[in-house]
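Quick entry between incubations.
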Amino acid sequence: MNRHLCSSDVDESDKFRQMSARQDSPLHRSFSELSAYQASEYRLLPFRFQRFDAERYVLTNLAGEYQLLPRNELDALVNHRLTPNCDLYDSLKAAHFLADTDSQVSLDLLAAQYRTRAARLPNFTSLHLFVVTLRCDHSCQYCQVSRVSQDRVAFDMTRETADRAIRLMLRSPSDELKVEFQGGEPLLNFDLIRHIVTEVERLIDGRTVQFVITSNLSQLNDHVLEFARRHNIFFSTSIDGPADLHDRNRPRPGSDSYARAAAGIAKIRQHIGPDSVAALMTATAESLTQPERIIDDYVRLGFTSIFLRFISPYGFAMRSAARIGYDTEAFIQFFKRGLSHIISLNQQGIPLRETYSSLLLQRILTPYPTGYVDLQSPAGAGISVLAYNFDGKVYASDEGRMLAEMNDERFCLGTVFDDYEHIISNSGLLQVIHDTMLEGTPGCCDCAFLPYCGSDPVFHYRTQGDVVAHQPTSSFCRRNMEIIRHLIMLLEDDAAAADVLRSWI
Amino acid sequence: MELSARIAPAVGPRFIARVCELSASASDEDIELRLTNPYLLRHRLLPNGVLAVPAQLSYLGVGDIIRIDQRAGDLRVIYRRTSPHNVLFTTERCNSRCVMCSQPPRAIDDSYLIDEILATIPMMAPDTQELCITGGEPTLLGPRLIEIVAAAKRHLPNTSLHMLTNGRLFKYLQFAVGIARVAHPDFMIGIPLYSDIASRHDFVVQAKGAFDETVRGLLNLARVGQRIELRFVIHRQTFSRLPQTARFITRNLPFVDQVALMGLEMTGFTKSNLEALWIDPIEYQAQLREAVDVLSQARIPVMIYNHQLCLLDKGMWPQARKSISDWKNIYMPECEPCSVRDECGGFFASATLRYSKHIAPVREPVSTTC
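Done. Structure below.
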């Protein structure tokens, strides 16, 4: 895109072009020329900026529109030395970085975009996690909950807890609710799932509700499939990569986790529909050396999206750290390699989207909100998601209840026997959300990527001891800044990759 | 031709009449239309109540509506029952003065047109496909515009209603609210936006502050849930920022229902400003393509109006529409052997003044339904 044409050389040819245009093609004398409508001075609109790479700076406005500028043009802009009405000037004006006397409407448009971005907030909590059991047949190395063997029925959610949780859920003002069954392995308590689905459908009072079961699919049977089909239930499973890698990450008796998952995926697609099952992958140190193999396996399994996910520091992940841990830089390299491979697959006609990139791209290229709970500001904890644990305790997020498994109840908001007002207003949740909003966080408040980023108080509490992040040492910050920077670089410098990325939103 | 006409209550020296079948029990209000000498220029109301009209009007049929101005000696056909392109012409006044205006404004008091429209609407056939409210600038009618929309809803609930306006007066939220309150079941408002830069848009419409007013109008119309079509006329003064304007729309005005990218009509002010405005459409195909891609990717429907298929990259043929009103639609001699002539929208009649040097018949049999 030839936007930056305001070096001193090009200024001259710009002026010449305008002059000749006027001489070559005059309007009738009863009409005024363009110059009669143009201003000669401009004012700056609010924006943030920082170094982008060796040559360029990135600027963003309140709504998340961005521009890349070399240092000399940034200097000219800020010091009011930009040549009025040249291409760069127009580009910055259209993107609401500067304004002059021809228009007052930039703030209205920025406000409209900002409101659009925040449009989900009044809906409040739409995602509700029901941890129906902690029992599981797998012993995944990075498991974020206590692993308990299959016999311990004491770790199942009771019907009474479920009923109370449903009533709490229905207190949320959101028109669209999503019920996600978690565990352990939720299908080990399928009877309760059936009860909850039936109860929610009975009580739902006209709103829409979507059901999702996160499952390793080893317990899938025709009974479950038929029920899921009838009630339009989606499945979310884990595929860490090809069988050898997957089975090493996710051991179970018989070492056949991958085979069972693949069989389950096929059965769901056949019985319910081709889009009824999605998969997440969790990267371990071993995964980092083979992103292409993992991605190719997703294509082979017929998936159209893959989430190149960072491992969270909870539960068994912490205890196994020496084996599965990796530093942030290694993950970033893994991500970039994986993204590059996915882009080239797209160019060969294979439709595969990377989920995290897609959500960031939606924030970078459109004013529309995205629902991903772990990257919201104000933080998604509580106000986007609530987790109802098997024991009746209510947590501000999935990570919050995982923290509880490590005996830290910091993010427990109460129990299903408390009333909704207490859980939301009296539990200290709102203070945490208030304190961690990016606009008020040191470092974040000046970061150019603020409009694209979010706050994760639970992560930072666990890894740094404070809900308010210390950005210079935060792996969350490092990861997100680098991935955002990388995506913008591709959009700007790699036209072929940019075409692929744009097709994902 | 033996037809009669039913006269609506007279509005000053003018009255409107709907053409009907000749019936035996003709009342005092009927005037009989009869063919006369084709060289007769004036229309005279003959003593026995028969209106003589020239043979040029032999196409008149039952259901058509004519306006007769006895003082000026003028007869005008204001509605054709079988046409898909009927227009409610509201005023010649306008608060803009676009450099390419095809209906140059006049600052006159033509408010009689409003009452005439309100009298005409009930006479229109219920199966009228579409009506277009146009001018000049219809919003200058103020609350009377709302009356017209309400009359259309009441008498012609099955007729699609379209309105062409610069949208500037919708900066007043109450006006937008008033229009929306009518709750017309099928009403689309078409509003032009000629740049992403205020001064460039203001220049094209020759009115300072017009961009701001139009944008505020668009935001208000979106607030009240009104369907909106954005229009962009492509000419030498607008083409270079067409892709940027498309991006601006996707980022700031993504609520619009569709965007129409339009070719220049060689009439009105375009003729006065021809050298400043004319550009062979072949020269801006890259910009057009980019704009179509940007809008399509944002899932905003795009239409290309008034462009001939042979000038467009085949990838854009699905967006091309046959948009030119029948009464001003022609094809050029070179179009004779073209294999996609029937799918192509052709030209404005005024295009004989100047049109692309790259018009050439498409030879291969090719499907336009890609």
